[in-house]
Amino acid sequence: MERTADSSLIIGVATSTAERVQLARLLGDADALLLVSSAEQARAFLELTETMSPATPLVMTPTVVPMPEPEPEPVRTEPELLLDVERRVVRWEDREVPLTRLEHDFLHCLVEEPGQVWTYQRLHHAVWGNEHLGHGSHIHSVVKRLRQKLVNLEATVTIHAVRGVGFHLLPTT
């Protein structure tokens, strides 16, 4: 592609391939388009063109770069456990059950970071607002009630205990 005086060059800087592909789609009608992965690459190109005399034509040879296929949307094979924080209910598919404040706050921690083990101390601080652990029966009471509610929803997730550490939300096995 030859750059003439009336044509314009657009330089797009995008760090990832996906961003460069998106820029190419958006700016594909431009007279000349240069997509680079960093500002340094753009500066190097501009410095190269500045050193050329005005009489020297700048010839840009387009390189055929295969466009990656867009990634397919993930197929949700499993329903998702949804926590309605406004109404304080937990939903699985088309079923929902109400939660107490403690159950809601406890489950909110686990849903916020699925699979992440929440320690007894961290859960106690997030749900009860203090560091006192005591004997822990109040935590186990909340877990027992939540597990039963998840069973009633026929959810395929449950609260798993990590002995001596805490709890996390995992798929049932």
Write a brief caption for the model:
The protein is α+β, with helices and mostly antiparallel strands and 173 residues long.
What does this structure look like?
This protein is of the alpha+beta class. It has five helices and eight strands. It has helices spanning 17-26, 39-50, 101-112, 120-128, 137-153; strands spanning 9-13, 32-36, 81-84, 89-92, 95-98, 118-119, 157-162, 166-171. It has a three-stranded antiparallel sheet with strand order 3-4-5, with helices on one face. α3 packs across α4 and α3 (101-112) packs across α5. The longest helix is centred in the last third of the chain and has 17 residues, at 137-153. The chain is elongated and about 80 Å long. The mean pLDDT is 78.
Question: How is the main sheet built?
Answer: 3 strands, antiparallel
What is the average of the pLDDT values? 78
Low-confidence stretches: none
Classification by helices and strands:
alpha+beta
Widest sheet, order of strands: 3-4-5
Enumerate how many helices there are, as a single number: 5
Helix/strand order: EHEHEEEHEHHEE
Total strands: the figure is 8
Q: How many whole angstroms does the radius of gyration measure?
A: 28 Å
Separation, N- and C-terminal Cα atoms: 60 Å
Can you tell me the overall shape?
Answer: elongated
Layout of secondary structure:
Layout: E1 9-13, H1 17-26, E2 32-36, H2 39-50, E3 81-84, E4 89-92, E5 95-98, H3 101-112, E6 118-119, H4 120-128, H5 137-153, E7 157-162, E8 166-171
Parallel strand pairs: 1-2
Antiparallel strand pairs: 3-4, 4-5, 6-8, 7-8
Helix pairs in contact: 3-4, 3-5
